[in-house]
Each structure stands twice: as structure tokens, then as C-alpha cells.
Fold this sequence. Notes:
- The chain is of the alpha+beta class.
- It contains 9 helices and 18 strands.
- The protein has helices at 17-25, 39-52, 64-67, 93-98, 101-113, 123-133, 232-239, 263-267, 283-290; strands at residues 7-10, 31-35, 57-61, 76-78, 135-138, 161-163, 173-175, 177-180, 200-201, 215-220, 223-228, 243-247, 249-255, 258-261, 278-280, 304-310, 313-320, 325-327.
- The strands form 5 sheets. A 5-stranded mixed β-sheet has the order 4-1-2-3-12, with helices on both faces.
- It is globular.
- It starts with 6 loop residues before the first strand and ends in a 22-residue tail after the last strand.
Amino acid sequence: SPAMPLTVLDLCAAPGGKTTLMRSLLPDDALLVANEPVSGRLQVLHENVMKWGHPGMAVTSAQGKDFGQMTSAFDLILVDAPCSGEGMMRKEDEAARQWSPTLVEQCSKLQRRICTYNVEENEENVMHFCRELGAEVLPLPVDEAWGICGSLSPGIRVPVYRFMPHRVDGEGFFLALLRKTGDARSPRPETRKRKNVQFSALNSQIRPWIADGDYCSWEMDGVVHALPSQYASFVSWLAGHVHLVSAGVPVAETSKGKVRPVTALALSNLLKKGAFPVAELTYTEAIRYLRRETLVLPSSTPRGIVLVTFMGRPLGFVNNLQSRANNLYPPSWRILSAHVPGHYQPVVE
């Protein structure tokens, strides 16, 4: 069988800014798993991943220790670990009021179970990982003009990188690249804690909506997801160890024998051009749509499911009844502001 493409884990992913940036930088056939252990932050991560629309993404919710059982499952892991928030002190007084040596100690211990300016949460943890977990610190190419400095600990002279807010733009952060020194080809554990995901061929009604390619499907809570077939075995194995929220792109919901496309399909690069009638919206109509208000489309618009767009970009679906068009945008995604924006003026480059 062909080798599995690059697998990447964003361990502390919410709200998803770094996740989506990393997805845009990875090879197109890589699989990116976005994980968020805190349930209260999970929804915004899932929403942003769905809006990004790349099929090579999965969302999970698990503690870092749960991934620790997955020997050599991932080629690359990004950890934006919880920290004491020293980088926020410049713009938020509350961050300074909350800081204490005890908080630093708590965050340092938390990071070791799963990095800020102080050496306890940064250099010392990096060396702990090297000594106790089998890792080596790798250098990264940086330009002196960027203003990045190295280790602040006199006894630790490994290639680490500090982005201090008085020298670089932004809040400041610490960066280190570590590589596992053990056998990269060690087998994955077979023990399962959860039920694995069952994949099948795409429903014949859904398949015409999907761009050309080799895709399989799986269903959760009445929502059908489309996933590139090359990821199926890995995702099924992953679901046996951690809580799988989504994998691939949600493309349809099934209810009472009926199948209807969902918004995530409209926003993804899986949507096949010409699969649905299209109605172009004005700026005012687009804002109304994103507020999940009812629209009235031109009389020439076909009845049934219609893809609505603004400046040619898909926004989602409506069910056009001629007298009105029922808005199918997810309730939890709708714009809540009562502000009525002015007329949109596109930027001409």
C-alpha cells in the first residue's frame, strides 16, 4: 500500500489561527490534526477549521497524555502550550495582576504534562524534554535583522529563539524546535479505547456535489463527512484513541430519508463547480445572509437548494421557495452585531 502522507498535530489548537496558517503552508496531501483539550474552546476551533475548508484536516479533543501513547504517529507536532501570559502584560493590565511565581510554577508543570519569557517555562523545560523524553534541539535559520535573541539562561546554550516585544513586532514569544531521537519507525500501539470510525463510499446523491478525487465518507450525528481515502486508515486508528470531532469536510446532513448539503461544503475546496444553481448577492444581502435572515431571490432563481455567493465567493446555501429563500447558514455562526455596515467598496489593486 502507498505510504501515508505527512501527518501533523497541532496539540493546543484553539481558536485555530495557527492551525489554518500551518494548513496553508503544508503540502496539499498532508493530514493536519487540530486538537483542543478544553471543551469550552473546542467550538470556535471546529468552526474555523470548517470555514477553512481543506479536506486534509481533522479535529480532536484530548489531553496531551492521550497522544503520548501514539508512538511515532506524527511527523511534526506544534505545541503552543498554556503559559503565565507574560507576553500579554504590555497590552492587558489584567495579565500583570494575575501573574505570580506560583502561576509560573503551575504552568511549567502543566507544560511538562503536555512558552512566556521566564527560563522555567522555556529553556529549562526544553532541557527537561531532552533529558527525560529523548529529544534534541535543532537550529533554525534566522536573520540578525529580525531582532530575535537566544537563551537567557547562562547554563543553557542551545539554539532557542526569543521574540521580545521591545525588539520585534507583536506580543513576544519563545520558540524551540525539537526532534525525537528514538526510532522513528517504531510500531503504533494497537490497543483501542474507543470505537473506530467506519468508512464507506460516498452516497450516490452526494457524489455529484464533490470535486473529482478519491473520497470516502463517514457519518456522525446525521452529518456526512467526505475524507480523502488515503487518510481513512489513519483517521480510523486515531479515533480509537482520542475523541474525534470531525475529519475531512462535512458535506451533507441526512434526515427522514432526505439529504441536504451543509455550509461547510460551500466553503470548502471540495465543492464541485456547477453542482448547484448560484445566486450572487449584493453586499447588503450578504450581510443579511450571514446574520441568518430570510432572503428573497430574483424570480428567475430555480426552486430548491441554491448556492449564494458574494463577489463570486461562496457563502453557503439557501432553500429557495420563490416567495422567500430559507437561510441554511448555521445558527451558531451567524453575525450577532446589530451594527449596519455601510456600502462595501472593493479594493482595486
